[in-house]
Recover the amino acids of this structure.
C-alpha cells in the first residue's frame, strides 16, 4: 500500500494536481476552477476543433496541460498550436511538458500583442479555459474584444463554463452559439460551448 501511494504521488498527474493546488491557493479568482480539467472535458473540447481548417489554434489558460495534451492527441499539429498561460509557474511547467510548442506567458486581455509575429498568421480557432464569469467585467470585455479582433467571421471559439445554463450572450456579443454539451464526469460538471464569429 505504501508503495502504491508513493507511486501515485510521484506520477505526472499527481505532480500536475499539486502544482494546480498551489496556484489556486495563490490566486483562486484567476484560476476559476477547483480542479484541473478532467480527461473527458479536455477531450471533448479538443474534439470540437476542426483540424483541417486553416489558421492557428490558440489555447487560452493552458493550466497544467490537460487540454493541450488533448489537442495534440486529437490531431492539432504542434506548429499550429500556441498556448497562452497567465501564471509564470504554470507557463514554466507547460514549457517543460511540451517543449515542441510555443508557450506564451501573459494576459489574454492583450492576446493580439502577445502573439507578436504570430499575429500575421490567421487564427482559425480559440480554445478557452478562461473563467469569463468570475473575471472582472472590464477584463472579460477586453478578452472578448481580443476574440473579435483575432477571429475572422466563421472562426470558432470553444469555451467551457461551470454555469450549466451556458455562457451569457452579453459576454460574447459578436458570436453565435453553435452547440453546447454538459460534461457530467468533470468535477464540477462543466458545459462546453462552440461559438462562431458572426459576419
Amino acid at each position: 500500500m505504501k508503495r502504491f501511494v508513493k507511486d501515485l504521488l510521484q506520477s505526472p498527474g499527481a505532480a500536475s494536481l499539486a502544482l494546480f493546488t498551489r496556484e489556486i491557493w495563490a490566486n483562486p479568482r484567476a484560476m476559476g476552477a477547483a480542479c484541473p480539467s478532467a480527461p473527458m472535458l479536455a477531450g471533448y473540447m479538443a474534439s470540437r476543433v476542426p483540424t483541417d481548417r486553416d489558421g492557428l489554434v490558440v489555447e487560452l489558460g493552458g493550466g497544467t496541460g490537460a487540454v493541450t495534451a488533448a489537442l495534440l492527441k486529437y490531431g492539432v499539429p504542434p506548429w499550429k498550436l500556441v498556448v497562452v498561460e497567465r501564471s509564470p509557474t504554470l507557463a514554466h511547467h507547460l514549457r517543460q511538458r511540451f517543449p515542441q510548442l510555443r508557450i506564451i506567458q501573459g494576459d489574454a486581455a492583450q492576446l493580439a500583442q502577445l502573439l507578436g509575429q504570430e499575429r500575421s498568421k490567421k487564427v482559425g480557432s480559440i480554445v478557452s479555459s478562461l473563467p469569463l464569469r468570475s473575471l472582472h467585467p472590464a477584463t472579460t470585455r477586453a478578452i472578448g474584444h481580443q476574440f473579435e479582433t483575432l477571429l475572422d467571421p466563421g472562426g470558432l471559439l470553444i469555451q467551457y463554463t461551470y454555469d450549466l445554463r451556458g455562457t451569457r450572450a452579453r459576454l460574447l456579443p459578436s458570436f453565435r452559439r453553435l452547440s453546447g454539451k454538459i460534461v457530467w464526469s468533470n468535477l464540477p460538471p462543466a458545459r462546453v460551448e462552440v461559438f462562431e464569429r458572426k459576419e
